[in-house]
Amino acid sequence: MPEVVDTCSLASPASVCQTKHLHLRCSIDFTRRVLSGTAALTIQSQEDNLRSLVRNQEIVIEISFETSPKSSALQWLTPEQTSGKEHPYLFSQCQAIHCRAILPCQDTPSVKLTYSAEVSVPKELVALMSAIRDGEAPDPEDPNRKIYRFSQKVPIPCYLIALVVGALESRQIGPRTLVWSEKEQVEKSAYEFSETESMLKIAEDLGGPYIWGQYDLLVLPPSFPYGGMENPCLTFVTPTLLAGDKSLSNVIAHEISHSWTGNLVTNKTWDHFWLNEGHTVYLERHICGRLFGEKFRHFHALGGWGELQNSIKTFGETHPFTKLVVDLTNTDPDVAYSSVPYEKGFALLFYLEQLLGGPGNYDMTLTNACISLSQRWITAKDDDLNSFSSADLKDFSSHQVNEFLAQMLQNAPLPLGHIKRMQEVYNFNAINNSEIRFRDLAAFDKSHDQAIRTYKEHKASMHPVTAMLVGKDLKVD
Ligand SMILES: [Zn+2]
């Protein structure tokens, strides 16, 4: 079989040499906004004559390094940008190709390594990594600092190396789960994610034993650029999941699923990102189906089909990024990012399931209720507006409210009188669920200008990847 080339990596390919282990020693400097230290890389030759090495021979190469204050993998927050307003905060996001912006590494998902780390931070702060916590001790070189130790014994691609430093607290919410955040969010987070252990158990039933030991959750400050990131042993999630009613818990089911699909079995190159995400969405929806019923799984499958259609409409039908397997030669994976690998990947697996004897066509019950309510609004004359009442949504889950708004968005904007009436009877402004609020906002043309103004005002303090992606969405440079 010809070798798969990772066009997103500048490192030697896995066929030449493979990093087996990283030992990281580093210190976090909030004043200069740099992370500096040494990376000791255990490298194994895959060739018979690699310089002076024979096949399978290992050497340890230790490299001193310091990050740039502009590293695309790190976001440094001032105390004002945190909930507590007292201490600075740092978090990393390495997927897809940003690990190289932290430390010297063979930055390709085709190579997997174990890692251990010693991280020195100001003593009033806590450091966490995508690994098992392995103790803490005063820094012998500086009485104002502390060293945290970590160990990840399961081989991972380096995009799963993750670090966070802040004034963090934790609550135990399950036998193998702590939820971490600033103290202002910790109670709310413990409530919101209380279903985690039951989801883990279902996932184990579907995927086999959970081999990572701990499954902790970290709720980040609002500038975290994604809904969730499946960093091993410590899933990172956005605080916008704190809806107050557990209605966005499918994101946790998604990140839990990555413990098998993505983190254990990994795409070899980013061209095949759908292997990570399509299988994970498939597993996520099975978990939610077991928890909330098969109808619910089909409802989300149909919602995903709608998301896929939106993405394809946005790119244009023949755009190369709408393919299941893309060609990322000379392309930043962040630019190609969309719902396509998630939902087209899921659709393929769902189709195969039906071919091979799954439960049949989509169960439309929950979706039909959303469609018929949206049709009532679309066809309503001014005289009909009194027929709507808060009872219309009485039997709707928040997922259905979201789908109802998605249906409305696919049609021409409603007249202003209709929108006013909708707010009067449904009071969407009072809803905390961020997905619903987002759809609600997107429904109004006038919010577009406001979005651009807000973007320009806050761009400088946004995560670099977010700034790039939001700019792309709003079509401003
Ligand atoms: Zn995912």
Automatic annotation (TrEMBL):
The keyword Protease applies. GO terms for cellular component: cytosol; nucleus. It is found in: Cytoplasm. Residues 365-474 form the Peptidase M1 leukotriene A4 hydrolase/aminopeptidase C-terminal domain. CDD domains: M1_LTA4H. Keywords: Cytoplasm, Hydrolase, Metal-binding, Metalloprotease, Protease, Zinc. GO terms for molecular function: aminopeptidase activity; epoxide hydrolase activity; leukotriene-A4 hydrolase activity; metallopeptidase activity; zinc ion binding. GO terms for biological process: leukotriene biosynthetic process; peptide catabolic process; proteolysis. Its main location: cytoplasm. The active site is at residues 255, 342. Gene3D superfamilies: 3.30.2010.30, Neutral Protease Domain 2, Peptidase M1, leukotriene A4 hydrolase/aminopeptidase C-terminal domain, tricorn interacting facor f3 domain. Binds 1 zinc ion per subunit. Zn(2+) binds at residues 254, 258, 277. Its cofactor is Zn(2+). It holds the Pfam family Peptidase_M1_N. Belongs to the peptidase M1 family. This is Peptidase M1 leukotriene A4 hydrolase/aminopeptidase C-terminal domain-containing protein. It comes from Bos mutus (wild yak).
